[in-house]
Amino acid sequence: MSRIRLAHAAAGLALVSQALAGCFSGGQSGGNSEFAKGKIEDICNRKLLGDYMPEQRRPACLTEKDFSWHFEIKLLSDDDRKLPLEECISGLTKEITGCEFGGSTAYDNWEYT
Asked: Which of 6, 28, 47, 66 can pair with 102 through a Cys bridge, CB separation 3.0 to 4.6 Å?
């Protein structure tokens, strides 16, 4: 299966207050974003929520037919933190709709890829 990382970026590369976003320049494109958005809460609950240590990463994968969505969340803070459901859903939803080939977005405490 091809790997794809999905990320948020408004009109190409963007600097949004307190956020850095960048789209990847190539990779697998396509996928049903409505399907993926409908699965985000489940992915967050099963794979991504909970306590994180500094720099800790957690991956999750979603497959639909011949297409795979690969997500990763990383804690950027120097302190342990708990990822809340609302934050997980919000960050990954932006990733699903942001870039054709995926990318990565870093906020104050979390990086979504």
From this structure: 6
Q: How far apart are CA 3 and CA 109, in angstroms?
A: 25
The CA–CA distances, whole Å, from 69 to 52, 53, 61, 65 equal 22, 25, 6, 11
What is the C-alpha to C-alpha distance for residues 7 and 96, in angstroms, rounded to an integer? Answer: 6
Three-state DSSP class for 92? helix
The string of pLDDT tens digits covering residues 55-91 is 999 999 999 888 888 999 999 999 999 999 999 999 9
Nearest to 24 by CA among 73, 95, 81: 95
Question: What does 67-79 look like in DSSP terms, one character per residue?
Answer: EEEEEEEEE-SSS
